[in-house]
Amino acid sequence: MLVWRATRLPSRHMTAPVLYPQQRAALGAIAARYANGQNRLLVKMPTGTGKTVMFAALPQQLRAWLDTFPARSRGLLVIAHREELLDQAAEKIQAQNHGLMVSVEQADRHAYAGSDVVIASIQTLAARKFTRLHRLLQRFTPRIVVVDEAHHAAADTYRTALVHLGFLPPSDASDKENIEAVYYDDVLALENALREWDRTAPQDRLLVGVTATPNRADAVGLGAVFQALAYNYSLKEAIKDQLLVPPIPWVIETQTSLDAVRITAGEFNQKDLAETVNTPERNLLAVTAWREKAADVSTIAFTVDVAHAHDLAAAFTRLGIRAMPVSGETPKDERHQILNDYTTGRIQVITNCQVFTEGVDLPRTGCILMAKPTKSATLFEQCVGRGLRLFPGKTKCVLLDVVDVSRRHSLQTAAVLYGLPPGLVAQGKPLDQLADEFERFLADNPTLDQARLFENGQHLTLEQLKAKATTFNIWAVKALGAFGVGRALDWLKCSEDEYRIAYPWADGTETVAVRRDLVGQWEVVCTLRPRDFQAVRQRTLLAGAQDAEIGADFAEHYIFQERHSVTRLKSKDAGWKRRPATEKQLAVLRRRGVPFNPRTITCGDASALIDLSNRR
Predict the structure, then answer these.
(1) Which pTM does this prediction carry?
(2) Which residues contact 56 (CB under 8 A, 6 or more apart)?
(3) Residue 521 and residue 227: Cα distance in Å, rounded?
(4) Mind listing the pLDDT tens digit for each residue in 505-519?
């Protein structure tokens, strides 16, 4: 017999939280996108900025729309990734919606048949080939579905759940039990299937994914689930708005080499990594750095595996520091006791393995010790986010980043939190200050190629970069690679995510850019910059292209049809490109400080360098 257990919190003791501007903005963006015909939407907000409170307000925000459906067909279903998130979400949703019945569907807890809101774990819904989800849908009809920690949403299990909920085509259903990631090779097929599905898909329901995913590289496959990024609130903005404390990063460099560590599904192979980094010498180095930079500060350390968590805790304990390891193997009662001891100050350091990346609020944390190297910017920001929440008397979070030698692999470091190159080392400097100084450095050195600044896995301070800029010419025009195959026009590669072509037009210079958006799709944007300092005019010619080649085909068709007079000038085989550079071109390059060989530079070379300097 099933036992129905509902979580109804006593509303008379609750006060609905006041929404912050970014939460109201996110809700407004969701409503506007839905009104415009999109019903699978992604919201990006950093850890600690109120994602749960935001989506808890969806029933109130969309009340007029929900009231157009029968009373028992207005449900809100929240799908969470970890058990710890369920009760937190239930409490916040109940506080925001006093008159609604909120239930939890997880393990031996079953949602009440009259529930208005159900919070469920993805593992429970997927149990026995989604039998649990089907039973839930027999007594509960969700109109709004929220996927928390939505960077997991492209995984097989999530997509299959969304098929059963009517958001994705039946072809997306899978028997696989993967809840972590989607393979790169799967993405194109999934996105192609979605284009057909969207023509006839039901529009009487709303899917909202919330995530702290910081960049496109870690958002692989999200374009195969969501139609658009409805709202984007950055970590940098949250710190500036004083909703989070700023991280103060310190790099702890080791002599440990990661070059022999294999890569599995885009991340370090965890077995190889643990064997490489869990050494007495490296653990002692981490503890010594902690004593120097963050002694007496409540600290969460992130480790590779269970043995690493125990060994690092033991290294702290040997030096008289109260530390305890926590992992998925820690019994629940023991874990709760450790967390209680930490929040009351009886334990100073918790060394955790894959427990605190999501779903745990420990605001007293004033130091994050990253003893676990990662290639994932998402994972790095999630870990750091555990230390950025506000707490009485707390003004900063010390970030100790244990960085190993890595010539073959790209490591994520504190710099990526502000969109800076991962090889840029702060060493105690606030990241907003570092970002401003780095921007001025690039303005003073417009010819620098950032991709080569940190070659061979180097980690450099800004002062070291300035010294390098005075001794090395690292200017380079990037090769187009596969993008250039079959192109008729002379494109410039700005990065892996952007290609552009510029030409004189009307009263200024017009640029057509093919670039990738956050959900991995490509757009074509046309920008006209008048010479007389009038306002820049910009318009999007194409959005949602599946690859750069589609965007380039569209862009070239536009130029040949609408800007035909410039096609001879911008042809990649134009004869003028082989002529010696003109004095006017050379004067521009000299004025901008662009290095060149005056004996060999051609008109085409000079044009590419001028375009690249315009981009920077």
Answers:
(1) 0.71
(2) 89, 92, 93, 95, 96, 97
(3) 10
(4) 988 899 999 999 888
